[in-house]
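Our consortium's second objective concerns turning raw sequence data into structural hypotheses that experimental partners can test. To show how far this objective has progressed, the report includes one record in full. It was chosen at random from the queue rather than selected for favorable results. The single chain below, 451 residues long, was entered without modification.
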Amino acid sequence: MHSKVKNISSLIYITTRSAARKTKSASKRVIPKRAYKVHSAKDITRDDVQPALNYIQDYWSQLTRSTKRQKDSYINHTSTLIPLKNPYIVPSNESGGFVFEEQYYWDSFFTAIGMDDKKMIVGMLENLIQLYSEFGLIPNANRYYFTSRSQPPILTTFIFYVYERFEMSDKWLQKNIAVAKDEYQHVWMSTKHPHHRQVHKGLSRYYDINSLHDLAEAESGWDMTPRFQRQCLDYVPIDLNCLLHVYEQDFARAARLAGDDDEATRWDTCAATRREQINSTLWNQRQGFYFDYNYHEDKKSPVWSLAAYYALWSGVATDKQAEKLVETLPRFKKPGGLTTTIGNMMLTKLFGSTKTQWAYPNGWAPLHYITIKGLQRYGYEKEAKELARTWIANCNSWFVRHGEFLEKYNVVEPQKKPVAGVYPSQSGFGWTNGVFTALSREFLEDNSGET
């Protein structure tokens, strides 16, 4: 199904974004002049955010990139960018001295949900499929030095999103699901190098071909976080295994659509087995919460994080566990949304004085989306709507005041900038734009009271 792994770089780049090339000549972002009113989460309407939605729609063109398949430039070492056959959206245009030219794996889905351009969305999915066929994994992003690791696996979710939204053919679905099955088996369920990810009772970890903790942590997408205590290779993460549970559910669904009930049953069994292992290994009954698990030391991480809410989004949690997770949610709630972790974990230092950014007081668009959709899955519509409107109002408020969307937000003190991590805070911003648009369309009413 896939070619042998090739061009695996041994270069050590710590984070998913920090290696983006710097530039001095990038054009400055133009901030529109406005006199819009800031609205609270309670009374905000779709009309109130329409200027922001219009801005996002116009901004997609500034985030669009394309590569040409001209081999000579790569052979001559004039670029590290892997050429893709279709145009794609990058996270940010220019911010903090960085220019993004890459398509990132898990960013792609959260960006696509807010776009209306079918050709672009399908093309970005095809780019991920192309990368898998060439490298035997979907790299962190389309740079050669990112081929040592992947990112949180969200391929089947992206495939089914495109299949349903654009009414793709069943033949198209089965062709792409076959690639996801190969990724699942050869990357995420592998028990040996270069993809030694399945490590404990059928559960998997984040990894990097260099077998370094910080690079494995970069694969988690949470670059960087206190969740793993700087020992990421030793941990079985809750979010990753929930994502793989979704893969197994999606494989069962695809099999039933193809009329293969026997295969569907096999995948149902895989999903049930994983769900049982997650709940026996990662759930803390006394605290009523999911934690990452250090399988070397047989103990759970002390860090309370929003990764636990992947258990709602994926359907891993029982109804009683879901109830406990909802009861815990107020501990994360702040004026601007949900903090990524409980408590001031930003004091965790990396590389001397550098602080983690996937932690308190920062809030991130993809984690809000996952949590909101998880709440809906278990019937907590009121809580989902309240959270969605809080996040929308926070993002819109910053846009009104500063004329931009951010990669992440300080949800504890929304008027302040987010806390930076190993790279400067970014504006733009692909997945924030996508999630903001998708949630605004679903959860905001216009002035007539219609959604």
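The partners drew two points from this record. The CA atoms of residues 391 and 431 lie 13 Å apart. The chain has one domain: 46-443. Both points have been shared with the crystallography group to help prioritize constructs.
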